[in-house]
Amino acid sequence: MTAVKKKTYPPLDTRFRFAEDSFVRLAGGWDSHLRPAVGVADGEPYLLRLFKKTGTALDDDLRAIVGRGLRRIRRVLSSRRARDVLVEVLETAEDEHELAIVMVDPGSPISGASQRRRTRGGRFLTSASRGVFWRNMVRVAEALALCHDAGIVHGGVSLHSIFSQLDDSADYRLGGVCRCYSRTGRRVAGWARRHSWLRFFRRSL
């Protein structure tokens, strides 16, 4: 009987130069962490969500789940507005030890220490800062609306899945969509249009 040759992958660090530090490791489900990197070939900044492989059939399950999520979110990201309010997912990559979701660098999770320090320091007490905060909330709501209109349920919105590049800027992007699941039954089409509070904030900000 001919032995099945195991597929080999080049190490991820041949494609990416990883930052020394990573963001908080996320517990629950598959163990993963976020790590900034720069592409070796193009010099562009990326963010990779890295899942440690188990060497078991669970790796195939994870690969299938991530692949389905990537196909769904690519359809959503076909619109320019979606690319402005959602983290842009490019591809998956893997080596012998890890599977990665490769994303355009969206900044840092707002759960970061610097974000918490600014909040404790009363950053949102001024009227200008409150305006930025609510514009960012509208961006997150629009990102969810785009997902819901495509039949995708996020189910994991938190300080770890919202990203920002700049302080005091309306630039929040929602991530974590590749691990979402498709809604069965009737879609939530027109979610944003049916929510009067979202229209109110759009007019008021």
Q: Can you describe this structure?
A:
The protein is an alpha+beta fold. The protein is 32% helix and 21% strand.
Residue share in β-strands: 15-25%
What is the averaged pLDDT score?
80
The major β-sheet equals:
5 strands, antiparallel
Low-confidence spans: 184-204
- Kindly report the CATH topology: Transferase(Phosphotransferase), domain 1
**SSE string, helices as H and strands as E:** EEEHHEEEHHEEEEH
Assign the CATH architecture.
Answer: Orthogonal Bundle
CATH level-4 homologous superfamily:
Transferase(Phosphotransferase) domain 1
CATH structural class: Mainly Alpha
> What percentage of residues falls in helices of 4 or more residues?
25-40%
Number of domains: 1
Instruction: Give the strand order of the largest sheet, numbering strands 1, 2, ... along the chain.
Output: 1-2-3-5-4
**Large-scale geometry:** globular
> How far is the N terminus from the C terminus?
69 Å
Question: How many helices does DSSP assign?
Answer: 5
Radius of gyration: 19 Å
Content-based structural category: alpha+beta
Q: Short summary of the structure?
A:
The chain is an alpha+beta fold and 205 residues long. It is built from five helices and ten strands. A five-stranded antiparallel sheet has the order 1-2-3-5-4, covered by helices on one side.
Sequence-ordered SSE layout with sheet pairings:
Blueprint: E1 16-18, E2 32-39, E3 45-52, H1 58-76, H2 80-85, E4 89-94, E5 98-104, E6 108-109, H3 113-120, H4 127-149, E7 152-153, E8 162-164, E9 173-174, E10 181-182, H5 196-204
